[in-house]
Write a structure and sequence with these properties.
single chain; about 150 residues; mainly alpha; about 0% strand; elongated; membrane; transmembrane helix; transmembrane
Length: about 150
């Protein structure tokens, strides 16, 4: 339970930081990751049956988040969305792996599906900080490719 509280604390902090200090790509990414985390929390199966089979609701949510961040990778001038897209791709592969190995350990599945979200939040914090630095150094930071 403590791990969940810590994650949602990090999620809230990174989202607010990106919304207040980030450019439009950071804001879109933050809202997407925030909505995805809460949707995943709501879509998880009831206690006692979690992660014994593919978590379809979380898989669908992860694919949707992956799509938004892939679009952001293509359209924005930022490099960080590509990193998070790759992380989410690995997370989707974890779900697909359970389809092919249904007897997988539920704890390993849960951990492998969740760990990428922590890294994505840290990347968002670093990306927002770098955006602030570019603004301070150059006075502007173009968000979108022409």
């Amino acid at each position: 339970m403590t791990r969940h509280l810590l994650f949602f604390g990090l999620l809230t902090f990174s989202t607010l930081y990106a919304l207040i200090r980030g450019g439009r790509p950071e804001q879109i990414g933050a809202l997407t990751l925030f909505a995805g985390a809460w949707t995943s929390a709501l879509m998880v199966k009831p206690a006692g049956s979690r992660f014994y089979q593919v978590e379809t609701g979380i898989l669908v949510t992860d694919v949707a988040i992956w799509g938004v961040l892939l679009w952001l990778s293509i359209r924005s001038t930022r490099f960080w969305p590509l990193w998070i897209t790759a992380l989410l791709g690995a997370e989707v592969l974890v779900h697909i792996g359970v389809l092919f190995a249904p007897g997988s350990d539920w704890a390993a599945y849960m951990t492998a599906a969740a760990m990428w979200s922590w890294i994505a939040q840290v990347l968002l914090l670093v990306a927002t900080r770098r955006h602030c630095r570019r603004l301070r150094l150059w006075g502007a930071d173009a968000s979108w490719k022409s």
